[in-house]
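TODO from last week: model Calcium homeostasis modulator family member 6.
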Amino acid sequence: MEKFKAVLDLQSKHRSALGYGLVTLLTAGGEKIFSAVVFQCPCSATWNLPYGLVFLLVPALALFLLGYALSARTWRLLTGCCSRSASARSSSRLRSVFVCAQISAAAALAPLTWVAVALLGGSFYECAVSGSASMATLLCKGRGPSCAAKLPQVPCNKQEAEMQDILSQLKAQSQVLGWVLIAAVIILLLTVKSVTRCLSPVSYLQLKFWEIYLEKERQIFQSQATEHATQLAKENVRCFFECSDPKECKTPSTKAWQQISALYTFNPKSQFYSMLHKYIYRKEASGSLRSVEGDAVVPVLGFVDASGMVNTHE
């Protein structure tokens, strides 16, 4: 039991890292299955280039869109945005663009992993480049006049010495590009992470406390919401069958739900750990959570919007 609890504690503390690691492993495994089972280069001057590019880029695009769909911040941003007033939309436009950029950066992990693993494997690149007329001049430099005509057959005809030489060259190019992409992504991630942490308005330990608070708020909110919804449902069903009047059961207004579902903004003058926290303390003063001077979207606090109720119906 203690070992199981330790595993759960580890998962809770390193949820983000474990999630990214799992996405990377699944993407790499999916690419290996595709290249071994599904992918079959047509070895045609007409089809090699589009066929190779489709397998290299289209799954990456699908994974990018899936990353958007699986992000809680995406739906927090989109839900109800069309029904807001024009003034509300214009005031939050810049903030929304900034959040979209953050979501895009997170969603790009799986696509970049797919492209990098595919380049390291080399199959997609070999097929695509062997059908490129512009690359034929470079690859066939110093070779016989029949090289350009034979080039599309390189992925299929691996017996000839000349074909093996070109295939080795293509594989080397693909793997070099793959390692360059991996190095560039790692450097970019470390740079962005370092800059966002450097610009953090709060300290390292306060961020840790913040994460703990959000996890506890999410758990309690989920529990209270389930309990309240159960009580309301029971009361409505009871009144229906007994043909009686319902007892008063208060629920938050639509405006209250909208306000706690808004994107989080940080204000050093009045620090709050979530939109729910902000709603409880600001509503007494103005009854609104509209932006005030000093409110800003802080990159390092993006995890605040990612926290939310567990979607049990999905």
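Done. Residues 1-15 have pLDDT under 50 and may be disordered.
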